Amino acid sequence: MTEPPAIPAPEPAAAAPADPVVPEFSVVIPVYGNEATLGAVIERLEGVAGRLPGPLEAVFVVDGSPDGSLLVLERLLPEAKIAGQIVVHSRNFGSFPAIRTGLAAARGRYIGVMAADLQEPPELMEEFFDVLRSGDADIAIGRRESRADPAVSSFLSRAFWGSYRRLINPAIPRGGVDVFGCTREVAGHLLSLGEAHSSLVGLLYWVGFRRTEVPYSRVPRSEGRSGWTLRKRVRYMLDSVFSFTDIPISLLSTVGFLGAITTALVGVVVFISWLTGNIDEIGYTPLMLVMLFSTFVLLSGLGVVGSYVWRTYENSKSRPVSVAMSRQVYDLDA
What distance in Å separates the CA atoms of residue 21 and residue 254, rounded to the nearest whole number? Predict the structure, then answer.
């Protein structure tokens, strides 16, 4: 009897691709002129990831960087031991818009923000995440205890943040805010505030929530130079003043009040001088005083009101604070 042909064994089904690991922690890093330090940034974040209780991703936002930062990231990040993203702006929008872009792209429950120049240690992210995970705070602020910057840069930074504390928000640490961490909820509230020409640091304090400060020491810059120029400092200060205080209006009101008193006193002196016959050209002196003072007040008032009108107009356009032209995601398999 002829045996039935053997039924071939079924070929093993191709293994389904593993689901990517969902990051629990995200670190947002704006990139501009940092190609020399990106390798060290990734390496040190890999060390941080090894000590965290959950997966970590690094979100690099290339903000129109003129050097080879993008090429370096595209070469290193696919081989890294951490998940990563590369978001590329269509042009240079600035550090704070880049941070907002990174916050929108980050997928972690806890998010840290740091610079790519390694002046703030990446290991600080681990301390931020420990505080946030404990539930004791929703925002962790890096408080600079010391800095090893050049004398001029150090002086300008102290003057800037000292003025910021006096004029805008005394709760800001004396050394300012260069690095922070927050929960996903806080990041969502920051992103919902679509204000142009504002201050991210000011908004971070404006939203409230529970804050804590983590001390650290700022180390010298090993590569490149800071893009935080005097012009950018002045513009950022003005944006903060007009966005979070009524100082210009109060100053104008004070000048007007003091000017009115001065004008009244001078008027009394002029009137007495006229009664005693000490003024030959009657009406000349008070007329000139009134004209000069009125012109000064009107010009100052127009400048202040114009600044508010311009910012209101900019915000009414509802333009995004930045535009990302590409996004690459490198996940680790489960």
Answer: 59
